[in-house]
Amino acid sequence: MPELVSLTETIVKSLVKDPDSVSVKQFETDEDYILIQVMIDKETMGSIIGRQGRIANAIRTVVQAASYINGNKKVRINIDSF
Questions:
Q1: pLDDT, tens digit, for every residue of 36-56?
Q2: Structural contact between residues 12 and 36, judged by C-beta atoms closer than 8 angstroms
Q3: Taking the model in full, what pTM does it have?
Q4: Which long-range contacts does 53-61 make (Cβ < 8 Å, 24+ apart)?
Q5: Regarding beta strands 33-40 and 23-27, do their DSSP bridges make them parallel or antiparallel, or are they unpaired?
Q6: Cα separation of 39 and 49, whole Å?
Q7: pLDDT (0 to 100) of residue 31
Q8: CATH code at position 38
Q9: Other CB atoms closer than 10 Å to residue 39's CB: what's the count?
Q10: Is pLDDT above 80 for 72?
């Protein structure tokens, strides 16, 4: 599971101007999915979400594909600002 967090963090940090402002954490849930929380600066939120959420959906697709390849559960990625 930590490889999914690392993958998400690598993708998100490559898209922002200040990579040190990115925080990615994994939370265990009772349901059958993995929750990854991405916290970014409010000013860089648009560069992660993209137009109509295209970049955010692409990030979710790549991480979900990596999870399926490793035989893991479904992944949910929440993107929020601080």
A1: 999 999 888 988 999 999 999
A2: no
A3: 0.87
A4: 55/15, 59/8, 59/11, 59/12
A5: antiparallel
A6: 12
A7: 79
A8: 3.30.300.20
A9: 15
A10: no
The amino acid that residue 44 corresponds to is T
Q: Which two tokens stand for residue 23?
A: 């925080």
In this structure, the chain runs to a length of 82
Is pLDDT at 61 greater than 70 in this prediction? Answer: yes
Q: Is the pLDDT score of 1 beyond 70?
A: no
The pair of three-digit structure tokens given for residue 60, joined into one six-digit string: 């979710």
Could you give the number of structural domains in the chain?
1
For residue 57, the enclosing domain spans: 2-81
CA–CA dist 27, 73 (Å, integer): 13
Locate 43 and state its tokens.
């000013």
Residue 41: both structure tokens together: 């600066």
